[in-house]
Amino acid sequence: MNPLPQKKRVVVTGIGLVTPIGNTREDNWQSLMAGRSGAGPITHFDATGYEVRFAAEVKNFDPRQYFDAREVKRTAPYIHYAVAAAEEALADSQLDFTRLDRQRCGVYVSSGIGGFNVIERENARILDEGPRHISPYFMISFLVNMAAGHISIRHGLQGPLGATATACAAGVHAIGEAFRIIQRGEAEVMVCGGTEGAITPMGVGGFSAAKAMSTRNDDPQRASRPFDAQRDGFLLGEGAGVMVLEAYEQALARGASIYAELVGYGLSGDAYHITAPAPEGDGMYRMMLATLQDAGVTPDQVDYINAHGTSTPYNDKFETVAIKRAFGDHAYRLAVSSTKSMTGHTLGAAGGIEACYSALAVARQMIPPTINYETPDPECDLDYTPNEPRPAELRYVLSNAAGFGGTNGGLLFKRVE
């Protein structure tokens, strides 16, 4: 019997970010360290009359840096953000594609919703003007895989190409699947992450109708308060987080700078409810155990968890329970934080953005804070790194994600010795 092939090691060699707290990797890091919120009044549309009139928007972003004027109109913001983040991640990686087999370089960038604004615009057009006035670019503007497609075409990356539509876990699943592709030897390089641009009338109205969002219209920057006793819902955000994953041997051979090694990926399904987390955080608990098992790491080796931490009453309570179940007594010794306190909940982009933050935390040995943490909740009793970043010795960092439908995903990053 032939032995199973050895899994390849996988490392992060490039990071790109477009978020409500910065349009570059370094701007994001500075905002994280300063505890800066990206929240403010909605400017993407007139929110007069809406129950929620604030969000965490990407600011001062010009898609014409990446697309000509006609292309900007034919594409959606989630594509713009992803292309920009991918450009930064690839430049950061310093890959020379003239020396690589492009058929072994792929893209896996996901979105939860895709081009929501395009759907709204074309629906209004068909109702007002009739079906003959629908844009011929409609179908290729909103599909969730189009961000990955644009990145692949722009850079001539002919390897594996994919996208998941797994709600707020989409970014983690994209990176995890890209990780598996390299582990199996099917590619040497994967550009991967998550992207979203759903701060639209229907996006805000829909989540508001579901009573999922904070209604602190008078104080947007203090609205996202994960694990705080006074939390009242999430802050809607947008943006993209994209990283370059690369086979370790190749990165080492070319002298690449490495942020972290990706060593574990786990998934689970709650099988409980479309929107509510399973009792006792069962799905997230099993996902975290699966992630650690995949990496061959024991719970007491993990130093920090970048939590899903949405600032909703149920998520934060049950994620805390899940962490305590998965880590036992060590749960009280490790650090936890939610960077959604600053970026808001970027939906399908969240897993990509927070994975990038986790890799940066490993590289820089710093834990980003949970801002707006003011009133402890007896049901959320862990160390949430309140309000100030913290230097720490970080060997293993876990990034959690969950989404509607009961989907969960986790990524475990390791410091490269």
Topology:
Blueprint: E1 10-18, H1 25-34, E2 40-41, E3 54-55, H2 69-74, H3 77-93, E4 105-110, H4 116-129, H5 139-142, H6 146-155, E5 161-162, H7 170-183, E6 189-196, H8 201-209, E7 239-247, H9 248-253, E8 260-269, H10 282-295, E9 304-306, H11 313-327, E10 335-337, H12 340-343, H13 350-364, E11 366-367, E12 390-391, E13 396-403, E14 407-414
Parallel strand pairs: 4-5, 4-6, 9-10, 9-13
Antiparallel strand pairs: 1-7, 1-8, 2-3, 6-7, 8-14, 11-12, 13-14
Helix pairs in contact: 3-6, 7-13, 10-11
Please explain how this structure is put together.
There is one protein chain. The protein is α/β, with parallel strands linked by helices. It folds into two domains: 244 residues, Peroxisomal Thiolase, Chain A, domain 1 (3-Layer(aba) Sandwich); 150 residues, Peroxisomal Thiolase, Chain A, domain 1, CATH 3.40.47. It has a ten-stranded mixed sheet with strand order 5-4-6-7-1-8-14-13-9-10, sandwiched between helices. Strands 2-3 form a two-stranded antiparallel ribbon. A two-stranded antiparallel sheet has the order 11-12. Helix 3 crosses helix 6, helix 7 packs across helix 13 and helix 10 crosses helix 11. The chain is globular and about 60 Å long. The mean pLDDT is 96.
